[in-house]
Amino acid sequence: EQGLQLLEVGGSVEEDYIRIARCFEATRQRCCRLEQDGRRAREQLARVEAERAALEVKLKHARNQVEVEMKKRHRAEAELEKQERKLQLVLELLMREPWGNEALSREQCSVLSALAGRRLGAALVSVGRSSAVDESCQSLLSHSDISYDRTEDDV
């Protein structure tokens, strides 16, 4: 368009050709710069895509590890509850026997209390469980506190 405008304005043809050549040169240089910018952008995009793919792999491994650890935790918690029930039954049996209170010294009661842990320590004092003791020994981080949402992966 600039070239056509230059021809319409008039003047010598040689001057017009020089102006047109300068416009073409300026356009060629702009195209070269844009091509270089495009090449740099493609290279940067390739680096970012590679980094994103590596991070996705790390995320997948981390999620798998969390899942494995949660399964281990569930199994360990189930085993703990099973052992606590057994210990509770033993303690209740000892406390119900007529010879249980006499046969067990204070030291033995404290050892049994220590073995029973905090959750069952109150069982030696009273056969029923104390809810205050149960609550005080709950894990600060339960498995329900850990969550991750896979719906954001699609973004």
UniProtKB/TrEMBL annotation:
Protein's UniProt keywords contain Ubl conjugation: no
Any one GO CC term of the record: nucleus
Is Chaperone one of the keywords?
A: no
So which domain of life are we looking at? Eukaryota
Q: Which residues form a coiled coil?
A: 38-97
Q: Which GO terms describe its biological process?
A: mitotic cytokinesis; mitotic spindle midzone assembly; Rho protein signal transduction
Could you tell me the keywords of this UniProt record? Coiled coil
- What would be an example GO MF term here? GTPase activator activity
- Protein name as catalogued: RGAP1 protein
Lineage, opening ranks: Eukaryota, Metazoa, Chordata, Craniata, Vertebrata
Q: Which gene encodes it?
A: Racgap1_1
